[in-house]
Amino acid sequence: MKKIICFDFDDVIVDSNIVSRIGKYFGKKLKLYEMEMEFILDNENPEKFYHFAKKFIKMGKGLDFEYVRRIALKFKLNTGSKEALKKLKKNGYKIVIVSANDRRLIKDILKKNGISEYIDHIYASEFGVVDGKLNGKIYGTVIKTEKVGVVREIEKKYKIKAKDVIYVGDGLTDLPIMKKIGKGILFCPNVVTRAEVYEDKILSRKEKNGSLFLIEKKDLREVLNFVD
Q: Is pLDDT at 182 greater than 80 in this prediction?
């Protein structure tokens, strides 16, 4: 049987996220504050995330994509990321990234940090760019379906069942996909995310039967304790 492990990117493989990093460069501080508040509220209802993402990216219309790229390249790997990915690869895992971040930025960050060789596939969004500038739009299955839509794509690509997939994520928008796959690993989730796990019947049951795990130490090598 093929071994597939999927990782969220922002705040899991790297130590930051595109929202917090590029948001302050939009130059609309009052509007950004309102958007950040909406982001917090909408994350309690992951189905609304796509609508938030569209509004947020629209705020960046006209921003130079190369400028965004330079900001993204400042991202640092979380502790243990390279070692964990290298070990998983050595143990025969296919490693997949599932992220709402831009595919091009993810590839650049992976390359800069010398971990591209460990990644087999990337399912990610794409920021619209025209003449080198953001056009205020975002595209991709990942952003439209809050990541759940890629489960079927993974099943087809690797000829496996969802129950054989492991997913590592950190937030509320990762929970819907964790309900669909075999094993979920929450990496340093916040209080709101933890509360949702206990309140949701499916997630609570998965935790009790040993198919949903919690990591509290911000070291990605901890993932190795919950995989074969």
A: yes
